[in-house]
Amino acid sequence: MAIEVYVALGANLANPTQQLDSAVEALGTLTTDGSVRVSSYYCSKPMGDVIQPDYVNAVAGFVTTLSPIKLLDALQAIEQQQGRVRIQRWGPRTLDLDLLLYGQQQINETRLIVPHYGMKQRSFVLVPLAEIAPTLTLPCGASLESLISVTMYDELQKLIE
At 46, which CATH number? Predict the structure, then answer.
């Protein structure tokens, strides 16, 4: 069964814009028709207390027939192919791919929580997501529009390419 999914992309090492470009290309191999909708790229400050470069973030949406766990495995394989090393929570990385939404499903498994646990508070997720899916309603019933505050736009800098 084909289902629409949304994935957050982030990178702050090894030419982050190029990392996201490569990730979007790889995501195309996971779709039913090779097409991926991608938001603009945004610059954001890192989360946590780790001193590191700013992030480049985006959100991608596509339709896939992969199960949630198979999709998670594929996303982690893309991260590894692009040099992702998991050393420290919220530390610098070549690529981070987070499964935000898997249709309207709510998933709570050891390896996977969907909707992504932090997405409602993160401007670097909500703003790009709203760019490609402005009328989206989350599985909890909240509209995406209702979650975005004016200050969230101030937290991000849109990258012009």
Answer: 3.30.70.560
Active site residue 73: no
Mean pLDDT of the chain: 91
Interatomic CA distance for residues 46 and 140, integer angstroms: 27
98 is catalytic: yes
Amino acid letter, residue 84: R
Total count of domains within the chain: 1
Query: At residue 23, does pLDDT exceed 70?
Result: yes
Q: Which of 21, 96, 111, 154 is catalytic?
A: 96
**Does residue 161 have a pLDDT over 60?**
no
Mean per-residue pLDDT, 98-123? 94
Q: State the residue range of the domain holding 138.
A: 3-158
